[in-house]
Design goal:
3-stranded antiparallel β-sheet; disordered N terminus; elongated; Chitinase A, domain 3; about 325 residues; alpha+beta
Length: about 325
């Protein structure tokens, strides 16, 4: 229903404002091919922006001469108008021939329903007026947001360089191994005893890891000591940034040098030991796309805040059952 409503607002409004209803003899003198024959790519590419791509017949207005046959009342839609519509219905997305055909067929149906609704005077109803105010505001807001997104997406090399230098610690990476001992094992012993055993074993394994013993072997021994069956997960968890790690552990890990081992971290479900294998700072070129996305996002947020920052809504608490929002 929302999709159809938007089609009426955007498509019907734009087209009807620019195209009067024409009789078949007046309609640009164009002979239309059979809709069952798909145009060749070369023919499609040769169409001018104002060439008609859709003709809807039988759309006579009430005030038009009733002696005119319904088949002689035709509404034309140009290639530019139709492509403008598709860019709204599918912003930034790929438009397939099937999508275009579906919209064209839907449009013809909407025109018929639109005419019938107007004959009943529904366009003068309070419901229609309220709906149109909402859809108009929503459509304009969406169009504005898309324009702001496009404007915000342009980022200069100078902005990229400045952001990279300022945020360099954010991009730092470590390659780490992680030894994990669960605090509970439902198949053995009392829960409190299992947790105490896991804490004790983790402290012992941490000392051995600090002396260079293999982390995978240490984890296997820890799982066996706690009564777990099967193989534990591998300790190599690859490259991480500080933001990808628990906050407290991240601070400590990034203060370590390659080869160093963290203290035993008491996390929610496990005792964890981290070992730093390497540290690196990616080049500006490597993180360029990420920086562009971040800068564009910040620009968009500032632009939206400049528009909406001074707006606030006071809700009637008796009606909404909540305090006012700002």
């Amino acid at each position: 229903m929302v999709r159809k409503a938007l089609l009426i607002v955007v498509f019907t409004g734009a087209v009807l404002a620019q195209n009067a209803h024409l009789s078949a003899s007046e309609y640009r003198g164009v002979t239309h091919p059979s809709p069952t024959v798909a145009p060749k790519l070369a023919e499609t590419a040769s169409l001018a922006s104002d060439d008609p791509v859709l003709s809807v017949h039988g759309v006579c207005r009430e005030e038009e001469n009733k002696s005119i046959s319904a088949d002689d009342c035709t509404l034309g839609v140009s290639r530019q108008q139709f492509e403008d519509l598709m860019s709204i219905l599918s912003p930034g997305g790929q438009v397939t021939p099937e999508m275009k055909q579906h919209v064209a067929k839907t449009y013809a149906e909407l025109i018929a329903l639109d005419g019938a609704a107007r004959e009943l005077g529904l366009d003068n109803s309070p419901q229609y007026q309220t709906t149109m105010r909402w859809l108009e505001a929503k459509t304009l807001a969406d169009l504005l947001r898309r324009r702001l997104e496009k404007e915000s997406s342009w980022v200069s090399e100078a902005e990229i360089g400045a952001y990279y230098r300022k945020q360099l610690p954010r991009f730092e990476e470590v390659r780490i191994r992680r030894l994990v001992l669960p605090k509970s094992n439902l198949t053995v012993g009392a829960p409190q005893k299992v947790e105490l055993d896991a804490q004790r074993i983790a402290a012992e394994l941490r000392e051995r890891a600090a002396h260079g013993e293999d982390m995978d072997q240490l984890q296997r021994e820890g799982y066996q000591a706690l009564g777990f069956r099967g193989l534990p997960p591998a300790t190599d968890i690859g490259i991480r940034r500080k933001a990808n790690l628990p906050s407290e552990a991240g601070e400590e890990i990034f203060s370590l040098r390659p080869g160093d081992v963290s203290k035993v971290e008491n996390e929610t479900y496990s005792f964890v030991i981290y070992k730093v294998e390497a540290k690196s700072r990616p080049s500006q070129e490597r993180v360029k796309d990420e920086i562009i996305r971040e800068i564009a996002k910040e620009k968009l947020e500032r632009a939206l805040k400049n528009i909406t920052g001074q707006v606030r809504a006071d809700l009637n608490e008796q009606y909404f059952g909540t305090a006012s929002t700002e």
